[in-house]
Protein 1
Amino acid sequence: MTTICLLYPELLGTYGDGGNGLAVTERARRRGIDVELVSAGLNDDVPDAALYLLGGGEDGPQRLATDLLRRSSFVSRVQDGAKVAAVCAGLQILGMTFCVEGDDEFEGLGLVDVVTSRGERRSVGELSTRVDGRLLVGFENHGGRTTLSGGIEALGTVVKGRGNDGKFDGYRTKNIWATYAHGPVLAMNPWFCDEILASVVGAELDPLTSAADLLYQERCRVLSS
Amino acid sequence: MGKASTLRDQLASAAVRTVNRVSRMTGRGSGTVIGGRVGMTIAPDLISTLAEGRTIILVSGTNGKTTTTSMVAAGWGGNVTTNKTGANMPAGHLAALVESRNEHVALEVDEAWLADTLKSTRPYVVVLLNLSRDQLDRANEVRHLAERWRQALALREDGKLIVVANANDPLVVYAAEVGANTVWCDVPTTWIADALSCPKCTLAISHVGNSWHCACGFAKPTTITSVLGDDLVISGKSVMLELSMPGEFNRSNAAMALTALACVRVDLDEAVRRVNAIQSVVGRFSVRRWNGHVLRLLLAKNPSGFAAMLATLRDDGSDVWVAINARVADGHDPSWLYDVPFEMLRGHRVYCFGDRRLDLATRLDYGRVDYIVVDNDDLVPTSKETISLLANYTAFHDWLARSEA
Ligand SMILES: [Zn+2]
């Protein structure tokens, strides 16, 4: 049994972020992979899981989620190899510092050597990124500008939208995928969801057709035109 | 009664009327907003001038404001000035205030414009229904909105404003608790996903039964004026709500409309009779015909609205039609589809319409709900039963326009 854990949906679930948990679980089950989706609430301990999902949130909740995670077993579990898929605020939380509530700098979890400052303006709109020759499509809505340190690889290069800084979006480490495309990014990009799932179960996946294939083709067409 | 006091105000009022008439004649719009914009350019204080001396009830909130405003207007009885077409920003308010000069005014107000409208219209009562996520791509973060409401209400210097507020919505309570005259309504409120973290301290709010509280002391108000159970009880007086429109949420809307009317001393029995008789509000809940189908049109614009509307569907496995767009008025980001409990539709077959039907189909597919993507309207098989069609804002208006009464 593989456990997938949605972290603090009360705090980090602003933009349909629950959709990512739904998509990865459903795509596993349709292939006969034994998975369970659990969520860790504000008053719960962080459970043992193979994959943690971090969503986006407003300033206050983002700060609280970071504090709770800092005091939990989350950081050591990730250092021990548990995998994380993070979107939006989740991307910022895993880094060294981020800004909330004006320009107040706040300490992140320090798992990835990236820093987020306040962007000149909010980044709101369609986001598409080229990742290893494939498009990742979604929607971004955030006020951050994220800078990766030399050793950290971006998830992809921006084709449309802003992402980290107008050039790159997100980051990719051995066990972390992070993007500014929020909410149902895994639901909309079946190949990306499957890449994460394959890594979590440590095996190649059987092909799977689903409604998301047509949606993905449509969004790629719209965002490339 | 408000009257235009200066020559400039009179000119501006005339301009609003003329532009709106021209706009309606040329079919360029419903003719309420354009004239209002012209009027505000000529005389920026015109709303205040026209509002003076009238008894005004404002209604705001994420969901139910059009219906509730309509209930206030109908329940009041007699001639009531109102922004019927849902033009709920200043230009729409101005157009309504210019169009008719009744003493009684009921205005629907966009959540983001509440502070300005409180200032310009100086209402007698403001009704605060609920706050939840809606069109987040406009960066109207819901906690931020609650904060702006709170500051606007705290600024009211005269202390006379009556705030009729939903005691079961923590974000509304956060805003309304600073009012000097707050009338709390205990009405069923099922959507709590946006108020799980305390607006004061961000800790978890415990929702237990019909109550809620936070460790910091922030809690559901205890001095309740109006309670909606099987009957509606306002200040000890009980009345029977027997609405013609469906849905538990409409009962909550009616309870708050009637509480506001009680504040302006309208006879409650008369008001309830008038509210019970409302069949539909600007097409919402109306039964229409299209291509041989009989459709009941249901507007649902965001997760809480959708959840409430899904709960009104009969559990009979009938076909359900859902239409989703993501145009300007809808918000360009349909991510919210994943916050809608579409799993409630398992056992039904869902026909997916609208510009974003593939986003909807994907959501339904992951939720294990039967779906059919409609690329060609002519291929939809005819059914004998009345079909419920749930649509978000522009999709709803498309269907209203393409169907017949
Ligand atoms: Zn609190």
Protein 2
Amino acid sequence: MLKQRWAQKKMTLLMFLCIVVGLSCLAQVFFIEAKAFIGQVLIENAWQKSLEKKELHKAWPWADTYPVARLGIQSQDQTLYVLAGDSGEALAFAPSMTTHTSFRGQPIYLVQAHNDTHFTFLESLEDGDQLVLELLSKTDVFTVAEKRLLKKPQLMISDELDTAMLLLTSCHLAQNGEVGHQKRFVVAAYPSGASLRSKMPISDSTIKEKE
Amino acid sequence: MQMIEVKRSTSSRVNLKLMTLKAVAYDCLWLFCFVAFWLIGDHALAVERTLQFGAPEQPNLSLRSIESGHQIESPLAVNTDVYIDIVGPIVRTRVVQQFMNPSQYWAEGLYRYPLPENAAVDQLSMYIGERIIEGQVHEKHKAKNIYTQAKRDGKRTVMLEAPKDNLFTTQVANIPPGESIKIEFVYQEVLALRDHGYALRFPIVATPRYYPRRSDAGMQQTHPDAKLSYRDANTPNGNPVNFHITLDTGMAIQTMHSASHKLKREQVGPTRYKIEAGSGQESNRDFVLSWTYKAQENAQMRLFTEYSNDKYYNMLMLLPPAPDTQMNYRARELTLVLDVSGSMSGESIRQAKAAVNEALDQLQIEDQFNLIFFNDRSWSVFPQAKPANANNVARAKRALRNQSASGGTRMSEAFQLALPLSQTQEWLRQVVFITDGAVGNTDQLLAQIKRALGTSRLFIVGIGAAPNSYFMRRASEVGRGTYAYIGQLTQVEQKMVSLFEKINKPALTEIELLLDVSVDALLPTKIPDIYLNEMALLLFQSQSAPTELLIKGLQGDAPVYFQQALETEADVSGISVEWARRKIKDLQAQILETSTDRKAALIDELSEIALKHNQISRYTSLVAVDVTPIRAGATLAFEQIRSNLPKGWQLKQQGTQTLALAQTSNGLAWMTHVGLLWLLVALALGVFSCNARRHSRSRNGA
């Protein structure tokens, strides 16, 4: 009799344990979503300040990075505020951008974000979609012209590239849950009106070596 | 009887159930642990990844030269002869570059090559037959104008520029078809004594790389190094470099060898050697020559003096005596500051903690110490430095063990804690600052350090792809300490431990110069401590030649004096050049640190010193122009001379540039599923236990 009651108690305990674990998972999800959402609000404020004073402002005083751009995706009716760098800390709050220079001296803007917070729409972008990248100094309109799935988290850019380029990348959606997340989805956009000389400026490392 | 049997059977059933429950519980525990680890681990992994991706060296890179005008079929070639004259630590190097133009066009050549980090170029000449045309130093843009004008006028001309990163540029215009132009420049460097000897390095190749740079906008950028253009890896090495060296070692040497080249060595005096080296095959690696002396028991001092521009320029070489085992230990106050921000998580924090632990072990009973942690806030283990007794050390170790890495990076508060207003005079106060952080507000931080430093020595350890090495090097220079950069995460512990061992026992501290003349313009402005097997080089000006040298310092905690009468062997050339080089470097650092209004004045001061001492710098270039025009009408072809690919390098992905991508998935969908699954399990358990209860109650009722 006593043993039986003990077993039942254990069972109840186990049940509560399961509930706690389950809820903590969901809380984690909520926490990540909340961070991504609140990040955008805070960064929006900082960005407005940056625009007014024409100098960079941190979104919160202990931040490791600064807001550097605003990205408008017209087809998705979305506006995203972008932080500098590509650190895990920055990515938790907002899409993050690093700027590189192509062989011919043109800027390459590489914007990365998580595929389940800010870049959920990435794989549904279509060729011809307009992207508006507002930097502190200027605003450029880019047109989506190329989409590609990469097997490895690295991107090769041909030295034939002769215009500026905006790259949006994120982990491949179908890979969620797998360990490692090797595959990346890349959307390349070029300044509206620019004619491309090279056919395939971005590529997988594996593809390039065969050529 | 029956009742008992029934009971037994139920109890065994319960037992069985309990056992399965136990198994399920174990499984659940494992799953729970797994989920917990996954939640924590995913974050850590993401951070570590980005760190790897941010690493500065990216060998898969090829570059194109930017060429304009005509393309030359048979390329220009450069033959380099290097004449090195070494007296003690002073090295004067004469580099002769012969630009050969085998084509039928008039040519302009551009050649980029590295020079030693401490090289100060102060002479340029161009040879035309028997005539020698001396180059002159001008401000950079003026030199460029002179060069361009001469080029347009068809005169033979050469310009030498020193852009950033120790890559120098020679531009030679109007090389007649089938002929060559020979130019020569002289630079000087002063070698630093390490481990009882000197190592001379003449860089021949520059490795291709990306430069991680912080742009003005504060974002991190990587630029492919578009300045260099490489020869195809399959072609044999061009641009041979030959070395002709005379070496006066000053004292009897113990060993001499070159790890890079074959040497032809000939002894011409008791301490004098003639050395020849170099061939085309060996021009894809840097030249290294090293020699060592026997360990010295007494302090060694040497003063070199040069009279130039109405002033005496002096260089003091000070080598502390070999450590005495009887030497008194000078008690230290050691403050360890450890970055525990999120980016340190993983291997960095693990190894840094191990190294700090080791440093705590090395503390002596008479030492004082404190341990400070920082991320977005800063906190210390003790409110102020405490004696290093077993109790306190154990407490610090416990705090260290319990520390994990999370949060952002804010350094200013940590510096405030580490450099308090009231500092000890009694102990040697050392602050070791360990971080991997990017620093944004460097000017404010440097100002803060300068203000609060007091008597402290500041040592900085930079870990990983820290983008702000400049700040860290400069801060440790200001703080009379050293900067250790650790790029490889696997070396963190080992390199930090060797730093701790080094600063454990400085050979000579609190050094003061007591001369019979007044010392002006001393560089470095504050005399640093000297560590084991290292030496100090001090440069200063004076109105008359010093005749007696007295140096005061602390060896352990005992004051020592070194005295030496000087014979006026006044004229060693090159001291003023070395003084000017250091002054230029110091000004350069100040220019980077100051706001706009003082900047112009500092640039003027730098240019003035560079022009006076005939030195090229970031703001001044050397240019030489022949008097007579030789080209009229014919077009000029431009070509950048291709460098040899460093030994062991291959440019595989020709024509592409690689960008590394970060980890960009939270796995939210999966995590939601897992969460719901657990709730489902809970529900099932609830139903099951309800059923079981009802069952037992009904049976009890029966």
Protein 3
Amino acid sequence: MNLSNSSISEINKLYKSKELKPSEVYEEVFTNASLSESIIHAHLKLFQEEGIEASKLSDERFAEGKQLSDLDGIPIAIKDNINLKNHETTCSSKILSNYVSPYDATVITKLRNSGVVFTGKTNLDEFAMGSSTENSAFGPTKNPWNPEHVPGGSSGGSAAVVSVGSALASLGSDTGGSIRQPASFCGVVGFKPTYGTVSRYGLVAFASSLDQIGPITNSVEDAKIIFNSIKGHDPLDATSIQDTSIEIPEDKTAKVGVIKELMEDGISDESKNEVEKTIKLLEEQGNKVVEVSLPLTKMALSIYYLIAPAECSANLSRLDGVRYGSRESGETSYEMIENTRAEGFGEEVKKRILLGTYALSAGYYDAYYGQALKARSLITKDFDNIFQEVDYLISPTTPTPAFKFGEKTENPLEMYMSDLCTIPANLAGLPAISIPTGLSNQNMPLSIQLMSPARTDSSLLKFSEKLEKLVAFNQRTPLLKDMK
Amino acid sequence: MKKDIDIKSVAKLAAINLSEHEEKKLEKDLNIILEHVEALSKMDIDDEEISIHPLGEILNLREDISSEFLTHDEAMSNSPETEDGHFVVPPSLD
């Protein structure tokens, strides 16, 4: 049995029956990390000693029959923009390279109370801005399926560690696809919950009206277990919503819409084929699948690239070399701040701060930011109308499988296009999941994305579990096979 | 609507000291992006409402009650320079 590929519920059963100990699973994932890190560079930090200690405490709890939850003793990696007390939170940025968090994010408190063993912090595009981890100040993560290809981003490290088995699951954050796109590129499951269902307290803010924490896992069932553990209203996050979940059909009576605009130009044949293959399986099962049109999806990229940079320029203004982060010298305070930000931020972050500053500046605010917010409301209405007709929407997660390093770094729009299919869910606050379905001609993973109405996360996960069984994709990266 | 971006003045507003090379590269990239988002300004959506929360929720602040959280030292622990419990910065005036 390959433990690191096993499901959380299987492992939990073995823990309870005393056939397996958390420290044994931790040892295996740590071995996987030791073998793979020099090739893929997915972790920025491994918590070896702390992990051994935590897994032994979990051993004791199971020995005494006092397990804290189904996640007790499960090794989970955390994206390095989520705060863990007394550990660095770098956001893969030079400006925060020495920042040590004095507190736990709410999701960390919840996982800690569930007995989770934290394996380490994972690499990301600086401040979660990017789609390939090429923007990390500490070097990119490589795709475990082929290190010449990117793992996706921004949660590239979190997707790669699950794919390679150096954690059983991980947490990522998703602002425009940063959980689903890397999950798709690495052949694992990525789930972005409804906006506000998981507290953002302790997540370093990028674009506050779009950011959402979610799990990256080996299976939909694992995503469900982690989601159930981290969700819930949090008074420390003013955008957090009360638990008012809505149920929709989860079986063959569910009606599925295929988004016409995400099956047209700009989407590769390989990505379209995965959707068509999945539709066939759904139809064979008895689900009704119809084509639907969301014309504004074509504007989603423009809306996103005004709203997200505008919010980022405000959020990142706090990095001024005064209260935390690195500092460069200057004759005056203002000079010090200008030099600190010049030295501390990488090119993509500077680009987005400048774009956001411009979009919010006097004379341009209404034309850019105001107009984008109005268009966003229209997109949300379009989704509301479509969900009167269908229960779920299906599309590719990404326009292409994982691309090669350097392929999209020249023109910013080319990189941004890789989030074409994932951005609409963030704009409308919808839950969305990426499920691996097959491999490309070059043996790189391909996935489909399912979206559903806001607050229907539980139904989406149940329906996705059934779909995952129908698709029956069970390939794993060959990376560690030859090394063991 | 679109005018070419004045990179120097925007960098000043954003408090980032750019090198000449960065100015050139970022100006080029930003103009490509602004060109792309231009289509948005042509949409006739003046009457559309704006919502900040994607689900249209009202942002609820918690009650104004003090609670145990970070100590003063913890809150200051990441500052590059402090003195007697205060943040130290260079002079604000020339």
